[in-house]
């Protein structure tokens, strides 16, 4: 027994040495960015980073400047905070900075999906074919019908629908958009009432997975939570299985295209089920939270609400809800809403916080806009965090923490696309969808979903905050770097169908 204890002790020392030695020995080489390994071997700054990424990076920038390398859990990340220097990283004509490798590692861990060769290009191709142009308009029609079904009920609106209904704004937006998006993408059975019930149950499970997601990515779950995540994954794999999909009609062409590709590649049905779960999360994990922030900002800024409603009346006409279960809507109006477009850009600027990561395939010379050159080491990762370096930069966006609904509008009502930093025009002035090879392939559909929902809410409903003086809730610090931020707490509001003849 004593002998085994000694052996285990030696093995532990070897393991700790193996993990920590590279970090202990690493030193900053000539021309490399400032190196900050932190005080804890191997972990480095991981705890502070995971606790509040925004505040951590703000402190590192104040300490080291616009380029610095930090140790996070045995890996080294070089953060570039100068948006004028983003171009070489995003374009990467040398093909030295790889996004696909990191993305594949993440989907394997979170969704259990084993990517096949060509997946990344296939997803972008499918999105170009089915989430843009005429195909997007067809999907918008399905989405409008799904929203009508969920918000008005399968039998259409009734007299009691004109009474006030109270709910949490975040819960209402997330629940509504998730269910409509899920049904629009994965189709319906012949039992619509059962479909609605299943969508409601699925949202509750999805929400639970979403709450665990940030700590799951960072491997910070408790043993009980690890078991729960496994159960949730299996539930989604079963519910979204290709076998169950055979029982449905109207699955989106987007999903059909991708699943056909996987079948042709010989991907097993069980792995296709995991792919479906990944696509559900990718398509529905941010639309509901983004809609929450957009509606909240409109409710907190009456001049913005008035401008959006005025525009909606101009492009849609007066709201009418006839004795039918569907909203009547000119989908072409989505292409003629510059005010709402600006509201959405401003909302995403304030609420979307993606991290753009690239794996460095070989030693790489980064040329900054000021002429400075830095050597980035092979095996490290280079990262951009636009929320801090772009969205909250007062030089690019004056009073950056303030919601300004017309920030992205020119005086003549056209879209404003000219922004400057240090007197120089900046190309990447708002980056909620990422950029380059990692740009969100489904961004056009996501934006259409949200705009459709917002237009329905401001056109067909009266809505108001239960407490008009309630402050805008702060952001949940766990969500930094994971797409659209979520509030620390919900906000109560009430809504009712407008009286219509």
From TrEMBL:
Heme binds at residue 440. The keyword Iron applies. InterPro entries: Cyt_P450, Cyt_P450_CYP7A1-type, Cyt_P450_E_grp-IV, Cyt_P450_sf, Cytochrome_CYP8B1. Gene3D superfamilies: Cytochrome P450. The keyword Metal-binding applies. The chain crosses the membrane at residues 6-25. Keywords: Endoplasmic reticulum, Heme, Iron, Lipid biosynthesis, Lipid metabolism, Membrane, Metal-binding, Transmembrane, Transmembrane helix. This is 7-alpha-hydroxycholest-4-en-3-one 12-alpha-hydroxylase. It is found in: Endoplasmic reticulum membrane. Its cofactor is heme. Pfam families: p450 (PF00067). Belongs to the cytochrome P450 family. It is a single-pass membrane protein. GO terms for molecular function: heme binding; iron ion binding; sterol 12-alpha-hydroxylase activity. One of its GO terms (biological process) is lipid metabolic process. SUPFAM superfamilies: Cytochrome P450.
């Amino acid at each position: 027994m004593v002998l085994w204890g000694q052996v285990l002790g030696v093995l532990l020392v070897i393991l700790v040495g193996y993990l920590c030695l590279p970090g202990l020995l690493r030193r900053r080489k000539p021309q490399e960015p400032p190196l900050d390994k932190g005080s804890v071997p191997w972990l480095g700054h991981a705890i502070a980073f995971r606790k509040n990424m925004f505040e951590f990076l703000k402190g590192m920038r104040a300490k080291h400047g616009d380029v610095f390398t930090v140790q996070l859990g045995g890996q080294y990340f070089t953060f570039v905070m100068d948006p004028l220097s983003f171009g070489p990283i995003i374009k990467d004509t040398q093909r030295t900075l790889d996004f696909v490798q990191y993305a594949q590692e993440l989907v394997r861990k979170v969704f259990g999906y084993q990517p096949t060769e060509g997946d990344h290009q296939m997803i972008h191709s499918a999105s170009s074919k089915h989430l843009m142009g005429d195909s997007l308009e067809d999907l918008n029609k399905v989405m409008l019908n799904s929203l009508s079904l969920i918000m008005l009920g399968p039998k259409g609106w009734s007299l009691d629908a004109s009474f006030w209904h109270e709910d949490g704004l975040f819960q209402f937006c997330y629940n509504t958009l998730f269910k409509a998006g899920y049904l629009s993408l994965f189709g319906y059975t012949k039992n619509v009432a059962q479909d609605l019930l299943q969508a409601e149950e699925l949202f509750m499970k999805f929400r639970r997975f979403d709450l665990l997601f940030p700590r799951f990515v960072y491997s910070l779950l408790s043993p009980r939570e690890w078991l729960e995540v496994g159960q949730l994954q299996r539930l989604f794999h079963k519910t979204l299985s290709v076998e169950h999909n055979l029982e449905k009609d109207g699955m989106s062409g987007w999903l059909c295209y991708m699943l056909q590709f996987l079948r042709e590649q010989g991907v097993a049905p069980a792995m296709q089920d995991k792919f479906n779960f990944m696509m559900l999360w990718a398509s529905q994990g941010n639309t509901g939270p983004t809609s929450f922030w957009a509606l909240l900002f409109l409710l907190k800024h009456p001049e913005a609400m008035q401008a959006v409603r005025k525009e909606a009346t101009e492009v849609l006409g007066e709201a009418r809800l006839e004795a039918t279960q569907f909203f009547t809507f000119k989908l072409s109006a989505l292409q003629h809403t510059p005010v709402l477009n600006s509201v959405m850009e401003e909302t995403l600027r304030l609420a979307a916080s993606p991290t753009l990561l690239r794996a460095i395939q070989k030693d790489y010379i980064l040329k900054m806009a000021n002429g400075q050159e830095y050597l980035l080491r092979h095996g490290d990762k280079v990262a951009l965090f636009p929320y801090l370096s772009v969205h909250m930069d007062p030089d690019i966006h004056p009073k950056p923490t303030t919601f300004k609904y017309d920030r992205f509008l020119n005086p003549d009502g056209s879209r404003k696309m000219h922004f400057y930093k240090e007197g120089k025009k900046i190309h990447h002035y708002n980056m909620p969808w990422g950029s380059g090879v990692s740009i969100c392939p489904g961004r056009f559909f996501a934006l259409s979903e949200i705009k459709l929902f917002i237009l329905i809410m401001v056109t067909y409903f009266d809505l108001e905050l239960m407490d008009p003086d309630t402050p805008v809730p702060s952001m949940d610090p766990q969500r930094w770097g994971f797409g659209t931020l979520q509030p620390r707490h919900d906000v109560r509001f009430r809504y009712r169908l407008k009286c219509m003849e």
